[in-house]
Design brief:
The complex is a heterodimer of chains A (317) and B (302). Chain A is an all-alpha fold and 317 residues long. In chain A, 75% of the residues lie in helices and 0% in strands. Chain A has one domain. The chains are: A mainly alpha (317), B alpha/beta (302). The interface between A and B is large, with 42 and 62 residues.
Chain lengths: 317, 302
């Protein structure tokens, strides 16, 4: 490394250009941050692997469900003996659900076209978290806030970047799923089901879920500055936490002989996003899909606002 | 309010139990290199970070050209800063790090290449940051600070990690920038370096202002510590001749240190007493001695 001694005017005629609008500059800077490091394509490979894996699973189980429904659609419903009229009605609905070819096709299509969702949402969240924690982990927060002292603008740009990056992951995963799914239905001799509203809703709300998980991730990153801490907390509470919440809710409902613990389970974000996307009720006691959507939006707003307020106050040292 | 002037007024920062910065006021003038000195933990970094809106003051204000940093129209075009605990993503190249900053400020990539050339980092531009030496990292920080061609430069311990050649390069660069009329505020604990570089100094200790002014004035204000070094084979005769108004101290290596009298008077006394002189030197305090005297007892860990 040799030193260059400035002999002439060192800052003569700097090429500074004319600046674009502040939001455009910030978004460009945030996307450069993502593009110039490795995380995004590692996550993209992960998203691809999990999409392919879950396509394989959903197509396997879906093929079985479609075959059963097609074979059984001609059989009549025979109510089991010794049931009250209400219970008979419930059983009939369940039977119809399983033996209606139309509804089975829709249900399978919704699953296939949202393949890779479970881990895709996690990647969207972790990417959002890393967008924030990187600034502390690599001590770039100083440079970022020197360039833009308006911290609200910075965090809003990060939220927007997280939403757009999550949207990119959604498009990536959906493109693979739809391409494979159309071939799957075609091979089984059925239409692609893309004209069905529950299927469209599943795909669109899957996109909304990606966006909201991106926002949750940014909030998580603000609350837990430590990179490893935020990533581990996010991943563990997403994967294990959901199992634990479901287990506990189930145990309490059995213990109290009540269904409300299963209903309020929707308050857990991962359950909420599953409830929102599922074309049929995720489980019999689940609330309507829009409840899941509202819960997730509420988390997004709270995390976004709290994250912004904390970021505005925090000393960067 | 002069363009490019930094004014710190009553700046205070309390952490839980420590007054990191305590009612600190000083001004930094454009066209000069101002050294910001203080023992470790004196509050230098906290002060610089408060000027730059990175740390919120408990009380007081800091303005640059009359505006708070956050209110500057285009801060990067007005102020450049090299701070400690500021770094780049380990997996990002130096050039990409600058591109990220340039994008946020709205500068084209061409400007990035200009500042890379300016700090001599062009050959390492596409190397990842984790492969940079301490000196290269410091140069990258200076490059980032210069991106916006700022009229005010704030540097926190910029000499850290630079080799002697690098330090000299930085000194020349900062003096050159000051000569162009820019404001240069640079914190350091390398006092000999500061003496070579700074026009003005601000000395703080324990979060409080100790002394501020041109280097020469500050050093001269401590002139009472000027002493005369004498080497003679007959010190007792000389002391007797000098009289009681003069304070003379003998050192172990046979030297005599005289205070309270100028060198010519010592020479005259030696002539009167017919004492041989082998050495007669006036010792003025340097910045380091002045600094140590001014901050004595205030550098304790708080």
């Amino acid at each position: 490394m040799t030193a260059t001694t400035p002999t002439t005017t060192p800052l003569a005629a700097p090429t500074l250009g004319t600046p674009s609008s502040a939001p455009a500059r910030l978004l460009k800077s945030e996307f450069l941050k993502i593009r110039t490091t490795n995380v995004w394509w590692l996550f993209l490979i992960g998203a691809f692997v999990f999409t392919a894996l879950s396509l394989w699973i959903w197509m396997g189980t879906g093929a079985g469900q479609i075959n059963n429904a097609a074979a059984a659609s001609s059989e009549p419903f025979v109510p089991p003996e010794g049931l009250s009229p209400v219970e008979v009605e419930t059983a009939r609905q369940q039977w119809e659900l399983e033996h209606s070819l139309t509804r089975t096709l829709v249900s399978v299509a919704a699953n296939v076209y949202t393949s890779g969702q479970f881990f895709g949402l996690m990647f969207a969240m972790l990417l959002g978290a890393i967008l924030v924690t990187n600034e502390y982990f690599h001590q770039t927060a100083t440079a970022t806030f020197l360039a833009t002292p308006h911290r609200t603008a910075v965090i809003v740009a990060k939220l927007a970047t997280a939403v757009l990056a999550a949207g990119f992951f959604w498009i990536f995963s959906t493109a693979i799923s739809v391409a494979a799914g159309v071939m799957f239905f075609n091979a089984k001799g059925y239409g692609p089901q893309l004209d069905q509203w529950p299927v469209q809703r599943a795909i669109l709300f899957n996109g909304l879920a990606y966006a909201l998980w991106g926002v949750l991730g940014v909030g998580l990153g603000v609350l837990i500055r430590n990179q490893i801490g935020a990533v581990l907390t996010g991943a563990i509470s997403y994967v294990l936490g959901t199992q634990i919440v479901q287990g506990i809710a189930f145990l309490i409902s059995v213990w109290l002989d009540a269904t409300w613990p299963l209903k309020i389970m929707v308050a857990w974000p991962a359950v909420a996003s599953s409830v929102m996307i599922s074309p049929e009720k995720l489980y019999p006691e689940a609330p309507a899909w829009w409840v899941g959507g509202l819960v997730l939006v509420a988390y997004g707003v709270v995390f976004g606002v709290v994250g912004t307020l904390i970021m505005r106050k925090r000393d960067i040292s | 309010m002069a363009e490019g002037q930094i004014v710190v007024s009553g700046l205070t920062k309390h952490y839980r139990k420590v007054r990191a910065v305590d009612n600190l006021s000083f001004a930094v003038e454009p066209g000069r290199v101002t050294g910001f000195l203080g023992p470790n933990g004196a509050g230098k970094t906290t002060t610089l970070r408060m000027i730059l809106n990175l740390v919120t003051p408990t009380a007081g204000t800091a303005t640059i050209s009359g505006h708070r940093y956050a209110d500057l129209e285009q801060p990067v075009r007005h102020v450049g800063a090299v701070l400690e605990a500021s770094s780049a993503h380990k997996g990002r190249t130096g050039r990409n790090h600058l591109r990220v900053v340039a994008a946020a400020a709205g500068f084209p990539a061409a400007r990035v290449d200009e500042v890379l050339a300016l700090v001599g980092l062009t050959p390492a531009a596409k190397r990842k940051f984790k492969g940079y030496s301490l000196g290269m990292r410091q140069r990258l920080g200076i490059a980032a600070a210069l991106l916006g061609d700022p009229r005010v430069l704030i540097l926190d311990e910029p000499a850290n990690g630079l080799d002697p050649e690098g330090i000299r390069w930085m000194r020349d660069l900062l003096k050159h920038l000051a000569a162009q009329g820019r404001t240069i505020l640079v914190s350091s604990h390398l006092l000999s370096e500061m003496e070579l570089m700074a026009d003005d100094i601000v000395i703080i200790a324990a979060g409080k202002l100790i002394k501020q002014g041109p280097v020469g004035t500050v050093v001269d204000s401590m002139a009472h510590s000027t002493r005369v070094k004498v080497r003679t084979p007959e010190p007792d005769k000389l002391i007797a001749e000098l009289g009681t108004a003069v304070n003379a101290q003998r050192s172990d290596d046979g030297l005599l240190y005289v205070t309270g009298v100028e060198a010519p008077a010592v020479g005259a006394a030696a002539l009167r007493a017919s004492v041989e002189l082998h050495e007669l030197v006036t010792e003025r305090p340097d910045l380091e001695e002045v600094f140590l005297e001014l901050t004595a007892g205030k550098a304790a860990i708080r």
